[in-house]
Specification:
Layout (H helix, E strand, L loop, with lengths): L7 E2 L5 E2 L14 E5 L2 E5 L12 E4 L2 E4 L1 E6 L2 E2 L1 E9 L2 E7 L5 E9 L2 E10 L5 E10 L5 H5 L10 E4 L2 E6 L4 E8 L3 E3 L3 E8 L4 E12 L2 E2 L14 H11 L3 E4 L4 H15 E4 L2 E7 L12 H9 L5 H13 L19 E3 L12 E3 L5 H15 L3 H19 L45 E2 H20 L3 H21 L1 E2 L4 E2 L2 E2 L5 E2 L6 H7 L5 H11 L32 H13 L3 H17 L30 H15 L2 E3 L4 E3 L10 E9 L2 E8 L2 E5 L6 E3 L4
Parallel strand pairs: 32-36
Antiparallel strand pairs: 1-2, 3-4, 4-5, 5-6, 7-8, 7-13, 9-10, 10-11, 11-12, 12-19, 13-18, 14-15, 15-16, 16-19, 17-18, 19-20, 21-33, 22-23, 24-25, 26-29, 27-28, 29-30, 31-32, 33-34, 34-35
């Protein structure tokens, strides 16, 4: 997803320098709370400042880098933590003399609110000084992420009882207010002197507000309001109440799906410029913004929960689709963005941010998302409104995306953004030969050609919807020609596998990697023998760790189980491979992979991180987390939803008047009931009991198809 490789040596002794842009690790003891484009990373006591990555972040700026509570000059002893939601938690502690219970209720959203409750546990009166030290460095998010944030703090000014940390003539910064009003000083300290009778409680509230463009950003949960009644909370709770209900004995599946629902609720963002659209951010803590491939694949997997997430994502990407050529951002006509970052301006609207177009796969994936929405029964007016963007995307694929006109999507050397690779494995050493040599650009990635094939087919179907028979025929021909050329140029008969890529000399990059599993998912592999060979590789000890499918086979020169893209396991990648195995006709293999990933989720309290080490359960009995892995991370969170859909064999095709359901449950499972699945504007329930299948609520005109029956 992001260029964060680490130091390692491969099987052939290939040494790789630590990348300067690798994330600083988020210590395992820290707590991350996230809501929209805001998040906080703090210690287990609720204090901020214990590590270089801690802080309160709004719009890619750390508005608070220090927040330390003391009672009578001593830090509060942490006792316990209760997380109420992804954006709210209660921290319990006590004073050094153990006579005061200290509770901190924290809510994150466009800033942060902290409710303080201090209770006298003693049988005699107790006086106390409550001191809160606050600091801000206004560091850019990526400086914090890389561990190179400036040491210098922003000077504090005191005005009307508030602490003000401002730069650029007051145009950006943070303001801290408290109720009841505290004594404040220019050192950034708030002080209350309180008197407590036995058993009584003192209440206080502290509010951190961001300043952007000279204006204060109103927090989602301001002091003096009831957090449970905030519109954002109500919307999220309402969204979660509408989720399908799953009941199954498939090991780990129900828990993983429930955690996916909770995490995706936290990762939803609303574009202030278009509040009607709900989108999905890529992941916490560092990527709480719209991404191309990440948001597309996540919302595609989440169609089981709510198609509106995919509709909002598609509309947002269409609005920001490239219209001109810009070498700095990588923008080209028809190209779909890679990511959006918030500028220093006053607005948090996506269109006001800095847009990077440096990916080669987001554009064909966008076409697939629109087509899948159509198949899922999205309103025709929504689909028709997106057709011009589909046409422009396919135009990019035939034009700038294929600069030498050979029919393959490819990318050249690193551009101004410094990204060496533009596929989902975008770290600088992610594309290498079997002996460890890095492949020279321009590069045509294997999975990107698979996406392109599916996009041409999808584009043909959408052209037929629009009544453009000529475009439909042209796109069908493009897909067929690409498929034929692909199986000829990418297939390596001596390895019985598809090459990871074609290099600048059009030679196969012969590394064995998980990428070829995506080719099974899109259907570009027409030859059953070749598909069977890919399936054999995916289930081999070289790629399948027992928890999931490694990104690179163990015999490859750059393999390391603790790498970012060269031997680790990425849940979304494994789930796509499982879906590909099912599509290619290998259901038992698909469910074996699914069972391994669900076991990994179960060992990690139900939540799958962005990636984890490619070690086997025999080596370490739990998945080993990658130190800079995002969690929750969107497409990892959505991976169990794709496993569920794969197990059900659920393939709607509303325009064709059919819905395929062909269940194959994981080993050990006998029953599954999924109620209230959104489909074609209604709700459908699917029940599997042994070999029996019942589907209820299908709209009139849709036929149930069970291919294996």
């Amino acid at each position: 997803m992001h260029p964060l490789p680490d130091a390692r040596g491969g099987a052939a002794g290939i040494a790789v320098d630590r990348a300067v842009d690798e994330s600083a690790p988020v210590p395992s003891a820290t707590v991350t709370l996230v809501e929209g484009a805001s998040f906080t990373i703090c210690g287990p006591s609720g204090d901020i400042g214990g590590s270089s990555v801690e802080g309160v972040f709004v719009g890619d700026t750390r508005i608070c880098s220090r927040f330390e509570l003391a009672i009578d000059g001593e830090p509060v002893e942490a006792l316990s933590l209760a997380t109420r939601s992804p954006w709210s938690a209660c921290f319990a502690g006590r004073s050094l003399d153990r006579r005061l219970l200290v509770l901190r209720d924290v809510w994150v959203g466009q800033g942060m609110r902290i409710d303080l409750r201090i209770r006298n546990l003693a049988h005699e009166p107790r006086n106390a000084e409550v001191r809160l030290r606050v600091g801000a460095d206004l560091a850019e998010l990526f400086s914090v992420k890389k561990g190179v944030a400036p040491v210098e703090r922003v000077p504090c000014e005191v005005e009307d009882g508030a602490l003000r940390f401002l730069r650029d003539g007051g145009r950006r910064g943070a303001i801290v207010r408290a109720s009841p009003q505290a004594a404040v000083d220019a050192a950034g300290t708030l002080v209350w002197t309180i008197e407590l009778d036995p058993g009584t409680t003192w209440h206080g509230c502290v509010e951190l507000r961001a300043v952007r463009g000279g204006a204060e950003v109103r927090p989602t949960y301001p002091c003096g309001t009831q957090p449970d009644l905030a519109p954002t909370t109500a919307r999220r709770l309402g969204w979660r109440r509408a989720f399908p209900r799953l009941d199954t004995d498939a090991p780990g599946l129900a828990r993983a799906v429930a955690r996916a629902e909770e995490d995706l609720a936290a990762l939803r963002i609303v574009d202030p410029g278009h509040p009607e659209d709900v989108l999905v951010a890529a992941g916490a803590p560092w990527y709480m913004t719209l991404f191309g491939r990440d948001s597309i694949l996540t919302s595609w997997m989440a169609l089981l929960l709510d198609p509106n997430l995919a509709i909002g994502t598609a509309r947002a990407l269409a609005r920001m689709q490239g219209t001109t050529t810009d070498a700095d951002s990588g923008e080209q006509p028809g190209r779909i963005l890679h990511e959006v970052r918030f500028s220093r301006g006053p607005s948090l609207a996506l269109a006001a941010g800095d847009i990077d177009y440096g990916s080669t796969d987001a554009t064909p994936l966008f076409v697939l998302l629109v087509h899948e929405l159509w198949r899922w029964g999205a309103p025709l007016e929504e689909i028709r409104a997106l057709l011009p963007a589909v046409d422009a995307a396919l135009g990019w694929m035939e034009g700038p995306g294929d600069p030498d006109g050979d029919g393959y999507l490819e990318y050249g050397p690193a551009g101004p953004n410094g990204r060496a690779n533009q596929g989902w494995k975008d770290s600088q050493d992610a594309v290498s030969f079997a002996d460890g040599r890095l492949a020279e650009p321009p590069l045509a990635l294997v999975e990107v050609q698979a996406y392109a094939y599916a996009a041409w087919r999808a584009g043909a179907a959408l052209a037929a919807l629009a009544g453009d028979g000529e475009a439909a025929a042209h796109r069908t021909e493009r897909a067929a020609a690409l498929q034929e050329r692909f199986e000829r140029d990418f297939w390596m008969p001596e390895r019985r596998a598809f090459a990871l890529a074609l290099d600048g000399a059009k030679q196969p990059v012969d590394a064995i990697a998980s990428n070829m599993g995506h080719c099974l998912w899109t259907g570009i592999v027409a030859d059953h023998d070749k598909a069977a060979a890919v399936a054999e590789w995916l289930l081999s000890p070289e790629l399948f760790s027992g928890w999931g499918i490694r990104t690179l086979a163990t015999s490859m020169g750059r393999y390391s189980p603790l790498s970012y893209h060269n031997g680790s396991v990425w849940p979304h990648d494994t789930a796509i491979c499982a879906a590909g195995l099912r599509r290619a006709g290998f259901p038992e293999a698909s469910m074996r992979v699914a069972l391994g990933l669900l076991a990994a989720a179960e060992a990690l309290d139900g939540r799958l991180p962005e990636l984890f080490a490619g070690l086997t359960p025999d080596e370490v009995p739990v998945p080993v987390r990658y130190p800079t892995s995002c969690s929750p991370q969107a497409w990892a969170s959505a991976a169990p939803l794709l496993l569920l859909r794969t197990a059900l064999g659920l393939e709607p095709d509303v325009p064709a008047g059919r819905v395929e359901v062909d269940p194959v449950l994981p080993p050990g499972a006998t029953a599954l009931r999924l109620a209230d699945v959104p489909l074609a504007g209604t709700r459908v329930s699917i029940e599997v009991d042994g070999d029996a299948l019942a589907v209820r609520g299908l709209p009139r005109g849709l036929a149930l198809i069970r291919p294996s029956a």
